[in-house]
Write a structure and sequence with these properties.
Layout lengths: L1 H19 L1 H29 L4 H12 L2 H34 L1 H5 L3 H6 L4 H41 L4 H6 L4 H18 L1 H13 L4 H24 L6 H10 L4 E7 L7 E6 L13 H8 L2 H22 L5
Antiparallel strand pairs: 1-2
């Protein structure tokens, strides 16, 4: 009964987080979707302006049709996943500022005393904010991503049809949008666990920073990194990994699909290629597969990250319990 009651209270608290932050949670991905679709329409207007006969587009469709069905499906699926990188970038900014203000705002506007008077423990309060960042925000952004790509596929289908090609047999039939959307969602949820040390650090800063939490979130790692680099240089005359270096590599190994690029492919013009994280490290395989996502989550690095996150969360809880109206 106690567990059920706690779960119900957690749901209520997460619902509160959504309604208090629906501008960031809901309106931001909606605006992002409109911008993405607008860019596509602007591109079509420019294309029509300089290629009013449609020759260039027809030639591109002819080259695309000359490829095998498997290759066409691969390229369309990769393109759908590549677009998610834009959404991940904006979503990361939303999560960053949401977590920074999640506990700080209660203390700033003195509403912490009201929330502490309600039958909700500090543990559930912090959990509701952490779970909102880990699950609610990614799922909402994912739904808007799907809606955006469906509209874009519809517009693209009409363009293919205008080039005297069958959009279903040429594009939609070989494509695997469900696979692309499933991998994107899996990558985003896996990234929520991978980023737990960062999320927990932001909650810790939010629970204690006296003012301007962004400075307290950024300056300590920067100062510590500079000191580490300087001490390491004086000791060995070579720069060692510091906090910023470790953090950068951690983000680069993210299980979310972050990178999309065009790779040369002979006379065909190029293929779209996406990867997990930013393939600047060789610690993990960056191919966008479910197995590679799980490889990160069940790694020694993830275990270390969970320990760091647990320390930060415990500290955030400790400061939250001792927070006052001062």
């Amino acid at each position: 009964m106690n567990i059920t009651w706690s779960v119900n209270k957690l749901k209520v608290l997460m619902r509160r987080e959504y309604w208090e932050n629906r501008g960031a949670f809901r309106n931001t991905p909606a605006i992002l979707s409109l911008i993405t679709i607008s860019f596509m329409l602007m591109g079509l207007v420019i294309k029509i302006r300089f290629d009013n006969e449609g020759y260039t587009f027809r030639e591109a469709m002819r080259l695309f049709a000359s490829q095998s069905e498997a290759m066409r499906g691969y390229e369309v699926t990769q393109s759908l996943m590549a677009l998610s990188g834009f959404f991940v970038f904006v979503m990361s900014i939303v999560i960053f500022f949401y977590l920074l203000g999640s506990l700080y705002d209660d203390r700033k506007d003195k509403s912490i005393l009201f929330w502490k008077s309600l039958p909700a423990s500090d543990e559930l309060t912090i959990a509701s904010k952490l779970f909102s960042a880990m699950f609610v925000i990614p799922v909402i952004f994912w739904l808007f991503l799907i809606a955006t790509e469906i509209i874009m596929m519809g517009i693209g289908g009409m363009m293919v049809w205008s080039a005297d090609q069958n959009p279903w047999t040429l594009v939609f039939g070989p494509a695997e949008p469900l696979k692309a959307w499933g991998l994107v969602l899996a990558g985003w949820l896996a990234n929520s666990f991978w980023m737990l040390p960062v999320y927990s650090w932001l909650l810790l800063v939010s629970s204690k920073a006296p003012r301007v939490p962004m400075l307290f979130a950024i300056l300590p790692p920067v100062i510590l990194s500079v000191l580490q680099a300087w001490i390491g240089f004086l000791r060995t005359f070579q720069l060692q990994d510091n906090v910023l270096g470790v953090t950068s590599k951690w983000i680069a190994n993210s299980p979310a699909i972050l990178a999309g690029q065009i790779t040369p492919d002979g006379d065909q013009g190029g293929n779209v290629s996406v990867s997990l994280g930013m393939p600047v490290t060789s610690t993990f395989d960056h191919a966008p597969t479910l197995a590679n996502m799980l490889d990160r989550l069940f790694s020694q690095q993830m275990l270390f990250g969970l320990i760091v996150a647990a320390v930060f969360l415990f500290a955030a809880l400790w400061f939250r319990r001792r927070a006052s109206d001062g």
